Amino acid sequence: MHQGRCSFLELLILAILISEGGLYGYALYKRILSITQMHWKPSIGTIYRLLNDMADEGIVLKSARGRKHSYSITPKGLEYFIRNSRTLLTRKAGVLATVLEAYFRIAEQEPGIVTDDLKERLRALKSVLEKHRELIE
């Protein structure tokens, strides 16, 4: 969208809409905070501006429900997500695997280094990968 580049925030919003269906802007904001465990907090204004831009581009559908607006992904948004997430996944998967391998090697020598929070996130990642094992084998 922006000068031909897709932002990580756009992909995250689209991924949430694909996974959870239509949501209000504030609900999307709260999900982003939850997913990132508030380590990354884009402003609500940034999210609404991006949602409006995405609606103008036809990537999301903006539906008025009283004073609130609900957002859902469109077929054009699905195509946009697939095209841009594939590039991100291809670039980042190897980096993530290498970083995790290094981290776990250190953890073998430093038993307390793997926090409960990280364990929880890794279990979630493992669950997603196992659920879709047939797609990656």
If you average the pLDDT, what whole number results? Answer: 86
Kindly report the name of the CATH homologous superfamily of the largest domain: Winged helix-like DNA-binding domain superfamily/Winged helix DNA-binding domain
Q: Structural class of the secondary elements?
A: mainly alpha
Number of strands: 3
% residues in beta strands: 5-15%
Question: From the coordinates shown, what is the CATH architecture of the largest domain?
Answer: Orthogonal Bundle
End-to-end C-alpha gap: 32 Å
The count of helical stretches stands at: 6
Order of helices and strands: HEHHEEHHH
- Rg over CA atoms, rounded to whole Å, is 17 Å
- Cα shape: globular
Structural notes for this entry:
There is one protein chain. With 137 residues, the chain is mainly alpha-helical. It has two domains: 8-77, Orthogonal Bundle (Arc Repressor Mutant, subunit A), CATH 1.10.10; 92-136. Helix content is 67%, strand content 10%. A three-stranded antiparallel beta sheet has the order 1-3-2.
Outline the secondary-structure elements.
Blueprint: H1 8-20, E1 23-24, H2 25-35, H3 44-56, E2 60-65, E3 68-73, H4 75-109, H5 116-131, H6 133-136
Antiparallel strand pairs: 1-3, 2-3
Helix pairs in contact: 1-4, 2-3
Offer a few descriptive terms:
3 strands; Arc Repressor Mutant, subunit A; 137 residues; single chain; 2 domains; mainly alpha
